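Good morning C.,

I know you're traveling, so I'll keep this short. The sequence:
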Amino acid sequence: MNRAGGFGVRAGALLTDSARSIPAAVAFKMIIPPRAGGLDTTWKTQEMPVAGETDHRAGRRLTMDIMRRPSTIAVGFSLGLLGREVVRRRRAIDLDGQVVLITGSSRGLGLAMAKEFARRGAKLVLCARSVDELAWARETVAQSGAEALAVPCDVGDRAQVQDLVDQAMNRFGRIDILVNNAGIIIVGPIQDQTLEDFKTAMDVMFWGVVYPTLTVLPQMMERKSGRIVNITSIGGKLSVPHLLSYNSAKFAAVGFSEGLTAELAKEGVQSITVMPGLIGTGSHVNAFFKGKHRAEYAWFSLGASLPFTSMSATRAAHQIVEATRRGDNEIILTPQAQLAARLHGLFPGLTTSVLGVVNRVMPGANGIGTERRLGKQSKSFISQSFLTVLGRRAARTWHQYPERAEVEGSVMGGRGGKAETPA
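The tokens, ready to paste straight into the viewer:
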């Protein structure tokens, strides 16, 4: 006899014994669920006799109904998935002709998303602090035939954000999709992090989300249409050591974004929370490192470069744009980030303890102390080894070395060619 059959017999016997303990004149009613796959889809009550041989049949019938419940659950789960797909289809929009404003779009993931939106026919408003880098990015996306406006802006400055939105409105008349993507990474142990590091992180990655959102929201609510895409991080769900200022700002951004999703649902405006893990944009070369900066850059560059720890920027941009088109409430990028988020949700104390162990083997404090060094200024044998080839290639692809491209482009320009940035 198999294990399931044994369980059925034991359960039937238990139910029969229980039934015999009830007076014969008493009958009870049980709720019978609809049978999976049948034509009868109504819930019923059925009277169950409890005496003699009839007791045994009632027990067996009740046992069989219990054993059928997994099928009912499976049907319910399938109907839930079907309902989710119906909602997705109703929310989905055509991106052709949509006006998309992307902050932090002169390089990295912002540039990758700009190219993906452009490929789908969107009109773009690009934003970054560097005028030269922004001009380069506009020319790049314009090559695909997209209409693009480039506006220099520090998203941590409310007045500059207002000017950005005003210029976008004057050019296109509306903003259909806002992508809050601007970010800054400061890596180092808490002993070397300063109050200024936390302030800078909050200015860019929290207020740099709040200011653009509150500025574009009135015209979206008036039209009962619009999408706000907030690029947060798995660091907004799980605080990784040596990234405390970054994680703090991302936690705040996640809370703001999830709250928006709930509050704006009735207004016809959708907020989409995007939580990437490590993305191969090469952005680590422009991150700031403190303390033992070369050792910090070594581990960070490995994580951002290895194919089994990171996702390509092109793939990430495609998934984000698709989530935007569908109107998903939330998307977590990379399987590693999805697993980390689920484990932390189930076992927060355990994951925090594990991260405490990880922190013990990470670089210590001191070194250059509270001073900042860019990743490109913190090279070592490990960060320049064959293990980080993909990361350095991504940095070239996604414009993380603009100063090299400008210098080499001007030199090669006299010979009618365009330079390729070296590794």
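Safe travels,
E.
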